[in-house]
Amino acid sequence: MSLAAHGFLSPSGVEIAFLLVGLVTFGAALVTVTTKQLVHAALWLVVTLGGLAVEYLLLTAEFIAWVQVLIYLGSVVVLLLFGLMLTKAPIGRSPDADSGNRPVALAVAVVAAVSLVWVVVDAFRTTWIDLDGPAQGSTEVTGHFLFRNWVLPFEALSVLLLAALVGAIVLSRKRGATANSNAPKDSSAPKNSTAAKNGTAAKNSRSGKEQR
């Protein structure tokens, strides 16, 4: 397909929808990282990930879109919400959610975004997707492309996730052991000794009265 057929001044309906959904997703992502309420951040994360799934659908990548919904919306966000509930996170504003490193984080985010956009545009400058044609993101096409060209990064990512899981388990066990060691000792022994002394004193008083 020629480049003249895809003018930026005459976008199609799908391209306009893609731009609008992208703006909504970008706004939800900004609210996610700037809000001071953890529950609101988790809910805005749902909007962000859902917007990405819609973008995949508009790009005819149906398989990737449903993977996004099932894994991220159906698992990661639910796990995050359960974590907030089980750890008794504050419902309102949390002062711990703010940090003095916002300028540094903003600079890193801008540099990463510019680098990613530059790499993607440079790699797919002359590549166009026929949005009116058959879906190009089917399971067969995605699996063939992934395990032929990107098998090494795919396996490296799986090892990274496994290392993160093992690290989380180790840290949780260390924190549990530290909490148990810092817990106050059982005070039942002094109570029992006090009760024993009171019982002995009562018996002695009774024996003294009987002798009298």
Written overview of the protein:
The chain is mostly helical. Helices cover 74% and strands 0% of the residues. The protein has seven helices and no strands. It has helices spanning 13-34, 38-58, 62-86, 102-123, 139-149, 151-182, 188-211. The longest helix is centred in the C-terminal third of the chain and has 32 residues, at 151-182. The radius of gyration is 30 Å and the shape is globular.
Give a concise summary.
This protein has 212 residues and is mainly α. The chain has seven helices and no strands.
Distance between the termini: 118 Å
Fraction in helix: over 70%
- The DSSP helix count reads 7
- The structure class reads mainly alpha
Number of strands: 0
Characterize the main sheet: none
Residue runs with pLDDT of under 50 for 5 or more positions: 186-191
Gross geometry: globular
What is the radius of gyration computed over CA atoms, rounded to a whole number of angstroms?
30 Å
In N-to-C order, the SSE pattern is HHHHHHH
Mean residue pLDDT: 74
Strand content: under 5%
